[in-house]
Amino acid sequence: MASIWTVRGPIAPEALGSTLMHEHLLCDFYRVTGQLDQLLNDEALAVSELRPLVEAGGRGLVECTTPDLGRDPLALRRIAEQTGLHVVMGCGWYRQPFYPPEIDRRSTAELARRMIEELTVGVGETGIRPGIIGEIGVNLDYATAQEERVLRAAARAQRATGAPLTTHASLYPVGLVQLALLREEGVDPSRVVIGHCDTYLDLDYHMAILEAGAYVQFDTLGRTHMNPDDRRADALVALLRSGQGERLLLSSDRCHRSDLLAFGGVGYDHVLTTFAALLRERGVTDDELRLLTVENPRRILAW
Known about the structure:
- The protein has 303 residues and is an alpha/beta fold.
- The chain has helices at 30-33, 43-55, 73-83, 102-105, 108-120, 145-161, 175-184, 203-212, 229-241, 271-281, 286-301, and strands spanning 4-6, 9-11, 18-23, 27-28, 39-40, 58-63, 86-89, 133-137, 165-168, 192-194, 215-218, 248-250.
């Protein structure tokens, strides 16, 4: 039987309710960017910030922080225990500016074996298993040699385990480059989520991903410096009305202090409250919202 792997262990897909598919609870971009806003390292604050999500009906969350961004499996498990949320942890490496030296020093096969071991045994002595590969990214509008190596390693880990794979493809239509590399390695596109599609609102781009069989993810909801939510809602409704609802996913990619309610941000509940209201104004039904936030996450996360 397929299971969804959370930081507290496997659950049946039916146990997963409304789920945000691309978030960060604890992460450290600051070491590379020098921007203090990009450091989340307060467990107590994370627990507090998640309460409005739970009150809004949120039941699950995919935490896409990779080791090079400061992933902390034990802390994620404590947060999950305190909030009751089903937290799915990621694995792999982010994108080139954040890579550790081992990306150059290990072969593609060795990088794949590292991910496979985590996915099947657990992270180190914690025994905590990731439930998704990623977020696996490229930095600009092309994949560097290092990024191609990581993508191919992630593809091999996906084929070996069946785990879903989620990407970082921001501001450019680079998700198609990622998808082409993954398919060269034999990955089934139906196990791939192309992330940050709402940072490049081009219908042809989105349709090309969907027609290849992968998921399109609108996961920067609430980030008005990338796109207004009204534009995102219009684009998402267009995809829904084209009959593509079964491969669409939602999230908000909270990874800045300024994203949090405590710092004046819109918080983790934004998708299920404010953005859901925008969709309802455009005629999206409760059944369609359930498809986007419950049924689609269940399908892609089970392996």
